[in-house]
Amino acid sequence: METTVLSAAEALEYGEFKRSRREAEVMLTLKKLTVDASRRETDKSKLKSLCESAVKLGATSVLTSPVNAAAANRLLFGSETCLACLAGGTGESLISVKKTEAKKAMKQGAAEIRLAPCYSALVSGNVAYLKREFKRVKKAVKKCALVIMLDDPVLDGEEIARGVRTACEAKADGVCVRGELPALMRAVKTAAGRLSVCVSHVENAEQLRLLLKAGAKNRRGVVFCRKGGRSGRFRSRACGGCDRGGEPEKTGLSFPFPKLRRQAEKRNFVKKVEKQRTAGGQNAKKSARFYLIVEKGLKMLSFFRKIL
Hints:
Blueprint: H1 8-30, E1 34-37, H2 44-57, E2 61-64, H3 69-76, E3 82-87, H4 95-107, E4 112-115, H5 119-124, H6 127-140, E5 145-150, H7 157-169, E6 174-178, H8 181-191, E7 196-200, H9 205-214, E8 222-227, E9 230-236, E10 247-248, H10 258-279, H11 282-307
Parallel strand pairs: 1-2, 2-3, 3-4, 4-5, 5-6, 6-7
Antiparallel strand pairs: 8-9, 8-10
Helix pairs in contact: 2-3, 4-6, 6-7, 7-8, 10-11
């Protein structure tokens, strides 16, 4: 049996290679994390610290409560870390309440909605109610990824499988189970690749590596794809664009302030009308008149907003 003896320079180079490989593995693991900032005791200073840590680590997302969604979105603006927001409270809220809360989180900049299902319906086997709940919330937040939270410790394997099957039928984007190997294996087997399965309440790095090998995978951060200046769909960063052939934006986030977005849309509209006006002809006159009517309407709308 032949043995290879490395020289001092080759041994040093090999050690540097192993070190860089370990660093790459650690960075790859960190990019799959979601930083939890949804606890009740999270104040403004803790939220800022957690968001800064998530951006520094390159984490996939930061999970917040609806109260802190707008503040977290401002702290994450310009980074590749996206915002995930809880919705549904304890799970026993009405469907209309959950839908309104999810839509509000989407307007505040959330790219992922983590929905707490109705646990009483899940335990009792009322699949029709669960499916209707998931579908209505999914329809309300079409541009966001919908992840169903199944990480309650009281849920057994059969209830987790029931929730995963219902999520697949409602075309949800993923489910989240507790960081225990039996629960993860049951969810991965039931999902059968139709949606992503992520885990929560992971205690240490060794447990995280074991769960990742078993099939746990967090949803990659989403980017806003566009083609021809029109909005496209939210897709994974790794997709290299959307199914419409668009290119992903460089920021990796949607515009965080609705008021500024409306102002930008108005400026683009004004530029378009001015271009048509300078082109001449009957169409230019019609466009100019239409622009004046719209501008007057916007002024009246802003006036009434100030009064009310």
